[in-house]
Amino acid sequence: MERFAPLLEAWPGEHVIIRFDASTGAWIFIAIHSSRRGVPTGGTRYRVYARPDDGVEDALRLAAAMTLKWAVAGLPRGGAKAVIAAQLGLEREEREGLMVRYGELVDSLRGGFQTGPDLGTTSLDMDLIRRRTGYVSGHSRSLGGAGDPAPFTALGILFGLRACVEHVFGSDRLAGRSVLVQGAGSVGGALIDLLKRSSAVVVATDADPERRASLAASGITVVEPEEAYDQPCDLFSPCAVGGVLDERTIPRLRCRIVAGAANNPLASPEDARRLEQRGILYAPDFVINAGGAIALVGMEHMGLSKMQVEERLRGIGATLREIFSRAKSEGISAEEAATRLAQERLAQPIERDAS
Ligand code: PPY
Predict the structure, then answer these.
(1) Model confidence pLDDT, tens digit, residues 189-202
(2) pLDDT for 277-306, tens place per residue?
(3) What is the rounded CA–CA span in Å between residue 297 and residue 277?
(4) 73 lines ligand 1 (CB under 6 A)
């Protein structure tokens, strides 16, 4: 735990709630980055980390990205994220107990944090959390929730990919474009289906060998995880964990565009420059992957229909076009242009929703 203190001291957010769940050995971190534009809202990630410090670091970075995400999406929410850094191999009942206790913790914040699904959690986990608190979205439809947001995240990514392809190749058609999808989990898997329907040429990889086998069985070209970076393609779409693009992997990429669902796919801010120097267009993650966030708040708190949400997801493409043209005219990277746009929105007066 030696990095705990310096991480928290250097973080520009509001506060962090830390809980050790003795019966499962899990650490829970709820990072509240900003309440300026509304209720701090973000998903709950469940993962096994090498050290609890890595979980804190993930929570802090992810929460900060949520502030930017809500601002760019134009939704009156603040940035937050929770990480459950669990021990490997919990029994089902142990995990269920952990989720229910986590629900109690969320409830104790009395609306100071609103959560939902994220990497490693599903609507079923949200149902367990909901036994103890109402401050959770993305629970099952049978319980009145919006259900799994992954198909909406994937649709937002698809609109974003079209904007990228248009910027680089002059037409937004995905037919015949080759896309490497890194990670075929709930969002990556849904994206693969949408890409196939658009007649794109999909190559996929996943850290899980069983999932790679089932992708291959469904007729998709599959590569080993480490080979993915060397694969010639038009678009490289990171849809798994963050931090995958760095000084070691960026020089290997053989694509024109990096655009996907993963939060924080760049290991450090300099990696945006590294991509730019290689002539690779990068779609800022907090812009292109906002579809799930938009769907959850839109359907559960703003009363939007599925069609109205889809219309908002189309807006992700429009926002990216605006960001790419701003980057060009101001001579900055798309990442910098997106951050400027978010900061301008954060400085604007606030319009709150009814929730
Ligand atoms: C994300 O986009 O990374 C989120 O965390 C989205 C989200 C929004 C609201 C509840 C849960 C997850």
Answers:
(1) 999 999 999 999 99
(2) 999 999 999 999 999 999 999 999 999 999
(3) 37
(4) no
Residue count of the chain:
355
Q: How far is CA 10 from CA 5, 14, 60, 264, in A?
A: 9, 12, 10, 18
Nearest-angstrom CA–CA distance, 87 and 50: 10
Residue closest to 266 by CA, chosen among 322, 70, 122, 280: 280
Spatial contact of 338 and 284, defined as CB atoms under 8 Å apart: yes
Percent of the chain at pLDDT > 90 equals 95
- Collapsed DSSP state (helix, strand, coil) of residue 154: helix
Q: Does 43 sit in the ligand 1 pocket, CB within 6 Å?
A: yes
The whole-angstrom separation of Cα 116 and Cα 101 is 15
Cα distances from 193 to residues 51, 60, 158, 239, in angstroms, run: 35, 32, 11, 14
DSSP 350: P
Q: CA 343, CA 2: separation in Å to the nearest integer?
A: 32
242 lines ligand 1 (CB under 6 A): no
117 DSSP assignment: B
306 is catalytic: no
| Strand-pair category, 15-21 with 26-32 | antiparallel
Which stretch of DSSP H or E encloses residue 222?
strand 221-222
Those residues with Cβ within 8 angstroms of residue 57's Cβ, 6 or more apart along the chain or in another chain = 3, 7
Residue 233 structure tokens: 């393609």
